[in-house]
């Protein structure tokens, strides 16, 4: 072994010894004064950095207490390294407005009776996804969870009556919280129902910014507008002929006639047909087809429309948003339908509010 290799070996040994010493220090029982100091620090940090607007923040104080006590008991299931876990739990409590100090939460976990878990799971049924996600975060926040912890959380999931799909989703949400890489949710399996959109489920856990970034506009169709009368069209044609020029193309958007569309909120795969519609051909397109925009018979009238589809750009849920605006030329109202594919964690009400807010902002510009 040369000198360089020896130095590397020594450094490796020093790092290993340092880690062992740190572990030994954590295993040493602390004095009451040291423990109180740690609890005070955790409480102060939790008050500074609360986790707000979670599902548990909207339930009764009784359910909040059960939620916190059960999670506190879970964080005790692994010896050592409880500071980060306790801080995370305290931040949730702080965000709920609960006047619980770190020491009180710690004590609540010590006093918890495991036989009460079944009753608590019944009480927290509407919060089961949030609870399991928080449990997985607490188990992994200081490093990889132990087999004992994972087994315990799996048992609780079974008491909640969770299926494999539900456990997989909560695992992805927990991973997103820990890594702050929310694109892991793109691997989420399609839910059997709209179970991921229920407000209490993951409220406050998944960033709103991520949900917004996964709203894909697929198309905007004009479904009602002011139509020029036959007299207006004839006059425009005659005037154009007299001047030796073609009639100007209609500058307004083409009218669309929806033939079929999926139900709002339906689950879709990338490439699925969302809407089938007939688009009114522009006057320029009509000129190219027939040399005129007048249709003498029914067969010619059919040539005035083109059948087109709107496709899903990715997996998700489809929604349709209706709005209206004034035509710039005629000042008459035009009605539109905008098609969106969103993530499984989105919902129509949130999407609608966001869409209308953006439309108002554009109109003011």
Strand content: 5-15%
Number of helices: 15
CATH topology of the largest domain: TerB-like
Content-based structural category? alpha+beta
| Low-pLDDT sequence parts | 1-10, 243-251, 295-303
How many domain regions?
3
Distance between the termini: 72 Å
Question: What do the pLDDT scores average to?
Answer: 79
Q: What is the overall shape? A: elongated
Q: Biggest β-sheet, characterized?
A: 4 strands, antiparallel
Fraction of residues in helix: 40-55%
Order of strands in the sheet with most strands? 1-7-6-3
What topology emerges from the helices and strands here?
Layout lengths: L2 H25 L4 H17 L12 H15 L7 H13 L6 H10 L5 H7 L4 H13 L6 H14 L3 H16 L19 H4 L5 H6 L2 E9 L5 H13 L13 E6 L5 E2 L4 E8 L2 H8 L7 H5 L2 E7 L4 E11 L6 E10 L5 H17 L1
Helix pairs in contact: 2-4, 3-4, 3-5, 3-7, 4-7, 7-8, 7-9
Describe this structure in a few short sentences:
The chain is of the alpha+beta class. The protein is built from 15 helices and seven strands. The protein has three domains: 30 residues; 160 residues, TerB-like (Orthogonal Bundle); 154 residues, no CATH class.
């Amino acid at each position: 072994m040369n000198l360089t290799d020896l130095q590397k070996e020594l450094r490796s040994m020093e790092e290993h010894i340092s880690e062992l010493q740190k572990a030994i220090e954590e295993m040493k029982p602390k004095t009451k004064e040291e423990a109180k100091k740690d609890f005070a620090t955790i409480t102060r940090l939790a008050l500074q950095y609360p986790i707000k607007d979670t599902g548990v923040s909207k339930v009764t104080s009784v359910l909040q207490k059960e939620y916190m006590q059960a999670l506190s008991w879970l964080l005790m299931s692994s010896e050592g390294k409880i500071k980060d876990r306790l801080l995370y739990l305290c931040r949730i409590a702080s965000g709920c407005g609960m006047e619980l100090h770190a020491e009180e939460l710690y004590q609540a976990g010590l006093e918890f009776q495991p036989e009460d878990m079944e009753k608590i799971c019944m009480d927290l049924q509407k919060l089961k996804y949030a609870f399991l996600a928080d449990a997985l975060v607490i188990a992994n926040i200081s490093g990889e969870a132990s087999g004992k912890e994972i087994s315990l959380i799996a048992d609780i999931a079974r008491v909640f009556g969770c299926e494999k799909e539900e456990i997989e989703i909560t695992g992805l949400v927990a991973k997103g919280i820990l890594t702050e890489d929310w694109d892991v949710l793109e691997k989420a399996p399609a839910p059997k129902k709209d179970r991921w959109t229920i407000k209490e489920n993951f409220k406050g856990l998944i960033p709103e910014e991520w949900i917004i970034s996964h709203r894909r506009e697929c198309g905007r169709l004009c479904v009602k507008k002011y139509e020029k009368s036959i007299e207006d069209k004839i006059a425009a044609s005659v005037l154009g002929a007299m001047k030796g020029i073609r009639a100007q193309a209609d500058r307004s958007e083409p009218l669309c006639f929806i033939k079929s569309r999926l139900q709002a909120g339906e689950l879709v795969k990338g490439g699925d047909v969302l809407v089938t519609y007939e688009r009114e051909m522009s006057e320029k397109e009509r000129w190219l087809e027939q040399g005129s925009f007048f249709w003498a018979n029914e067969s010619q009238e059919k040539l005035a429309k083109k059948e087109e589809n709107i496709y899903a750009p990715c997996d998700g849920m489809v929604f349709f948003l209706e709005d209206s605006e004034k035509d710039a030329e005629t000042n008459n109202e035009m009605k539109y339908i905008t098609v969106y594919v969103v993530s499984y964690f989105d919902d129509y009400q949130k999407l609608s509010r966001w869409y209308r807010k953006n439309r108002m902002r554009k109109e003011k510009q």
